[in-house]
Amino acid sequence: KGLAFFDVLGHEPPVVNLQELLRNMWADLGDALSQQYTGAASTMGAALRQGGHTARAMLEKGWQAMNRAYCAHFEDGARQAALQCL
Questions:
Q1: Which of 1, 18, 34, 65 has a CA positioned 20 to 30 A from the CA of residue 82?
Q2: Do 41 and 28 form a contact (C-beta atoms < 8 A)?
Q3: Rounded Cα gap, residues 4 and 7, in angstroms
């Protein structure tokens, strides 16, 4: 075993799914950028995290779309004024 020196306490080293890790990081970045730009999380974050368009991802996408519409109509004016002050 080439990585046996990591096994100090007799535990197996954790297996990291790199694709899942990168997918989650990409979705988190999209959520952060979308939150800054629109005031709501990304509509594609759930689909990215789950690896495709499942029924749950579609429901989350619909919820985020409604949240974006609310923010655009009722909260965007104050956000734009604050950004213009910067």
A1: 65
A2: no
A3: 5
